[in-house]
Specification:
Elements lengths: L8 H4 L11 E6 L7 E7 L2 E7 L8 H13 L17 E3 L2 E7 L11 H17 L13 H11 L5 H17 L3 H5 L2 E4 L8 E4 L2 E5 L6 E4 H12 L10 H14 L4 H27 L12 H13 L7
Antiparallel strand pairs: 1-2, 2-3, 3-5, 4-5, 6-9, 7-8
The structure holds adenosine-5'-diphosphate and ligand LJ64HWYM.
The site of the ligand N[C@@H](CCOP(=O)(O)O)C(=O)O has 12 residues, from α9.
């Protein structure tokens, strides 16, 4: 998508004056993304991204924006939010929360090679370590509680075979989340949506992670599983590509060594990461919101990945 809330240059002429950015010179809606309304914003001070948050509230948003600030201050490459003249990271626009962040250089690498996966793995480990002393707490809002709420909303749309798969996997994940192994996993702020389209590269140089608006406190291993399930697969089949998997996991492990508990949780976590996006894509597909531009993501992609992760033993974590 996504421009759910249309905005013109005229609309923000006055509004922009609360930021130390000079006059707004250009504003262009961004077609990709499915969660928020995003715009490239040119001001007298440079290039930025304006985001209007469609689902997250004024109460929830400081967790994300202050996390980006926190990580950027510790050398993790992420967009820096721009504070208003009053020192606020959030402002109201058309009745909704809005923020301006720095624009990252480069572009998404949609055909990643092992060298890109290694860069992502190393930066992900650095991000997890840098988040350890982040003081705010917010659960992953697309975690188990949300899966429990969403499952009955999508079940009526599924074939018998897929309904059986969803019920069985939910049962498995509910039990797994109560296990001793799960409770030994290290937790902290995680990105939780680190797909190829949420990382910028300039050639082989990683220039930043962005789109932190699904971030929350969860297991670090869940973040690794989400990332591997997108970066290290054959997109047609969902099968893991060993060279990219090894490059990403080895680079992560070199910065933040995996634990024995994480090794034993790896296959259930790869399944959990597939289930999470199968569910959200099913929900978005069957209960779409109004939007100016919309390209729903394909739920069957993650159904395929989930079936594959259940059927195939996970690669070694380290
Ligand atoms: N900080 C940024 N720097 C550069 N481009 C960005 C930045 N934030 C968003 N974008 C661009 O906007 C697009 C949509 O942003 P995204 O955060 O993925 O949207 P959504 O939150 O709706 O999923 C990205 O694909 C990217 O091209
Ligand atoms: N990555 C998710 C959907 C979230 O979209 P994004 O553009 O914010 O990453 C998916 O692929 O289902």
């Amino acid at each position: 998508m996504a421009v759910f809330t249309p905005v013109t240059l005229d609309d923000i002429g006055q509004w922009i004056q609360q930021f130390p950015l000079g006059k707004a010179l250009a504003l262009k809606g961004i077609a990709s993304g499915i969660e928020n309304s995003n715009f490239f914003l040119t001001t007298e001070r440079g290039e930025y991204v304006l985001t209007i948050f469609e689902n997250l509230s004024f109460e929830q948003l400081p967790f994300y924006l202050r996390l980006m600030d926190h990580l950027a201050a510790r050398g993790v490459l992420v967009p820096a939010p721009v504070a208003t003249n009053a020192g606020e990271l959030l402002a109201e626009l058309h009745g909704k929360p809005a923020a301006i962040v720095s624009k990252l250089e480069g572009r998404s690498q949609l055909d990643p090679q092992p060298v890109h996966c290694a860069a992502v793995g190393a930066m992900l480990a650095r991000m997890h370590l840098a988040g350890q002393d982040y003081p705010l707490q917010q659960p992953n809002l697309r975690g188990l509680a949300w899966w429990n709420d969403t499952t009955p909303l999508v079940l009526p749309y599924l074939s018998d075979d897929n309904a059986h798969l969803l019920r069985a996997e939910m049962h498995f994940q509910q039990a797994y989340a109560c296990s001793d192994t799960y409770n030994q996993l290290q937790q902290g702020p995680v990105h939780a949506d680190l797909f190829r389209n949420n990382v910028m590269f300039d050639g082989e140089r990683l220039t930043g992670f962005f789109d932190f608006y699904f971030a929350g406190c969860d297991t670090w291993l869940f973040d690794v599983a989400v990332t591997v399930n997108d970066w290290c697969i054959d997109l047609d089949t969902g099968v893991l590509d060993q060279a990219r998997v090894r490059a990403m996991l080895d680079a992560y492990h070199a910065v933040r060594p995996f634990t024995a508990a994480e090794q034993s949780a790896w296959q259930p976590m790869l399944r959990a990461a597939a289930l999470r996006f199968w569910l959200s894509r099913l929900y978005d597909f069957h209960q779409p919101r109004e939007a100016e531009m919309l390209t729903p993501h394909d739920p069957t992609h993650f159904e395929r990945i989930l079936r594959e992760r259940i059927a195939t033993p996970a690669p070694d974590l380290y």
